[in-house]
Structure formats: structure tokens, C-alpha cells
Write a structure and sequence with these properties.
The structure is a homodimer of 212-residue chains.
Chain A: E1 2-6, H1 11-20, E2 27-32, E3 39-40, H2 46-56, E4 61-64, H3 79-100, E5 109-113, H4 126-143, E6 151-157, H5 180-192, E7 199-202
Parallel strand pairs in A: 1-2, 1-4, 2-3, 4-5, 5-6, 6-7
Chain lengths: 212, 212
């Protein structure tokens, strides 16, 4: 089973990669913008996405943990700033599915990444809230139009910290970090399970607000 | 109290306008792209938004019911198609708030429009699902950064039909249309009430799916 893991060198990507490596039936193609990976691609470019798929050939799953957004106060934000996240985390991930659906094997799956900031915002990350909101709802709409048993889900990780030191005064103000293992399980469930059009929220319910 | 009503000639805009006219304390400035309105502006252009605000001067509320998206099957969709809704319904409405926040009176409000397609998609309208999802979550993130008591909400209308003929075989497949009066009440509540960062879903609960 061939899986393309994009954003393999980021915090989330490393968590997924270290877990997927344990499964002999999974053949992983790692991708990043500039890391030491099998392939190099920037998802904000549709052309680079097409080149990536052409190099990989047939595959069964895409797991994307790449996508950037602008960070800064709303008072200083411009349209150009907003387009950083629109082009990368929103349109980049949509293009991974929109272009990839013509290459993926029957019954394959796409797993994209949103994040808690759409439902439980913090200051300075409006661009993430917008891009994540677009992605949370894109997967649902796309799921009813995909053919050949192809699935698409989003994983929405909570507050993920690389090396948690127990301090509460992070930008996420008191949020309790989510377990790396739980994050990995959600990506595995999305990629190899049965559901489609879903948002798998890997949240710490005691301190993360689940918006109605 | 001065209210800018954008998209005043559309189905939703006409519903809002006919109701707001009943209140003597509300001075309405109507705006559309090409209609018989007080001002002409296309919200997909940040420049035209700036010109609109400059012409209006001081105001207390913006209600936007404008914003277009591309309609068509996912199988035929391109990145360019997706950007129709991103530039108009998503970025256009974000720009109304991002630019307008520097002009609006203290305690003023912005009301933007999403719609049920983010939470209860139908085929052929992925662009709406993406743009509406961006807007549903933008208002929440923006609400925690706006100053001077300025509020921002979205109204998410359900299936709105101009002249309902009782037929179920619409593109929304069996959805029972929502009452025009209820739609107008939600915009009024958003514009003149107390809450911020909310999505007012004006849905018919018997046939519209409320996604978790």
C-alpha cells in the first residue's frame, strides 16, 4: 500500500511518519518543501503538486500535514497576508484532492489537516481559522462528489507541542496539549478506515472549546 | 443609525431591505454590483470596498448579502473556478470587515452571510461549502480581535426560495424552505443585538442536517 506523506518534516508530519514506519504493508513516500525527503514539493503550487503525483505513479493514500498561514494581529493584517493561508493551507490542500483524485487508486483516501483554530480561535491566527474552516467544510462537500470509493477526511489536531514542559502560558492560553499517539491514530483511522467527509477532532476536551 | 446593506438586490438582500425599511431609526445605504442602488460596488475588489466606505462616511452597521461562487461538478472543477468564491464570497466578505473596522463607529456591527452548504452540502456547490466554511470560522476568530465594541457575526440561511411552489425535487433535494421572516430576524438580531463571533443558522431543522 503506497502512501504519500506530505509535510513529513513538520511536527505533525514527524509524529505520523514515526508511527506509520511500524507497518510493513505501508510503503511511504515522504514529501516536504525543502527537507531531506523522497520528493520536494510546495503544495501552494498546483504545478508542483502535478509533478509530485507524476513522479509517484499509482498510490493508495495521501496524508497531508503541510500548509502555512500568516500569523499576526488583525489590526495589521492585509489581503495579501490572508492569501498566504488561502494559497497554501486552503487551496493547496484542496488542490491535493482536486488534482490527486484523477491519479489515486480505487478506494484510496485523502487526509488533509485543519486544526482547532477554526473552532477555538486565539489572537493572531485569523488566517488559520479561515483556512481551517475552509478545509473542515471542503472535505464534507467533496466526499459526496468523489467517485470510485475514494474517501476524504480532515484531521483537526488540538494543541500539539513537540516537547511539553508543563507551562500553561503558551499562545493557546491554558490548553492542555494533545497526545502525539492520539494524533497519529486519527490520521491512520482517516487514511485506512471507513468514513469519509469527516473532521476527526483530536482535541483535549477539558480545555478545548468545541463550537456548536 | 446608518446601515450599509450590500447585495440589496439579491434574494436575501431584498428580504432584509423590505423588513429594515419599517424602522424609522434605520437609515439604509443600499449597495449592489449593478442594480438600482444608492452605491455600486463589487466586494471582490478591495479597492471598490474602500471607495464605498469613503463615500458613506460614518456608519453603524454593515449587512452583507453579496458574494458569488462557482457552481459545477467537482470532476470538472479547476483552481480558477475555486477562486471565484474565494475572491468574492470569502475574501470579499473578510475585506468588508478588515477594511471596514477602521471606519465603523464604536459599538458597530458587521453581519456577513455564509449558508447551509458548509454544513449540509449538495452536489455542484463545493465552492460555496469552502467559502461558507471560511466565513463561519472567520467571524469567530475576528470577534476576539476587534476593538471599540465592534461585533461581527455570520448569518447562515437555509434553503431560501423566492416563490415556493411546494416542489421537493430542487437542487437541495427535499429541504423544506426557511421562512423569509426568520431570515430577516436573524440579520436584525446580528446587526443590532448583543452577540459577536456567532453563526446564526436560520435552518429548517426537520430537513436540514446540523453537522457536529
Amino acid at each position: 500500500m503506497k502512501v504519500i506523506l506530505i509535510g513529513a518534516t513538520g511536527i505533525i508530519g514527524k509524529i505520523i511518519l514515526s508511527q506509520l514506519k511500524k507497518y510493513e504493508d505501508i510503503d511511504i513516500v515522504t514529501v516536504s518543501r525543502k527537507g531531506n525527503t523522497d520528493l520536494i514539493a510546495d503544495i501552494s503550487s498546483a504545478e508542483q503538486i502535478r509533478e509530485m503525483y507524476a513522479k509517484v505513479g499509482k498510490f493508495d493514500a495521501v496524508i497531508n500535514a503541510a500548509g502555512e498561514c500568516w500569523i499576526g494581529p488583525f489590526a495589521e493584517m492585509t489581503e495579501e497576508n490572508m492569501y498566504v493561508g488561502i494559497k497554501s493551507k486552503a487551496m493547496g490542500q484542496i488542490n491535493l484532492v482536486m488534482i490527486g483524485k484523477d491519479y489515486i487508486n480505487d478506494g484510496g483516501s485523502f487526509t488533509v489537516t485543519s486544526g482547532f483554530l477554526s473552532d477555538d480561535p486565539i489572537k493572531g491566527t485569523i488566517n488559520y481559522s479561515v483556512a481551517n474552516g475552509a478545509i473542515d467544510n471542503f472535505v464534507f462537500a467533496a466526499s459526496i462528489e468523489l467517485k470510485r470509493g475514494i474517501r476524504v477526511n480532515a484531521v483537526s489536531p488540538g494543541w500539539v507541542v513537540e516537547n511539553y514542559d508543563g507551562k500553561m502560558n503558551s499562545p493557546a492560553v491554558g490548553q492542555y496539549p494533545v497526545s502525539h499517539d492520539k494524533v497519529a491514530h486519527a490520521y491512520y483511522k482517516s487514511a485506512f478506515g471507513y468514513l469519509t467527509g469527516q473532521v476527526f477532532r483530536v482535541w483535549e476536551p477539558s480545555t478545548q472549546y468545541i463550537r456548536k
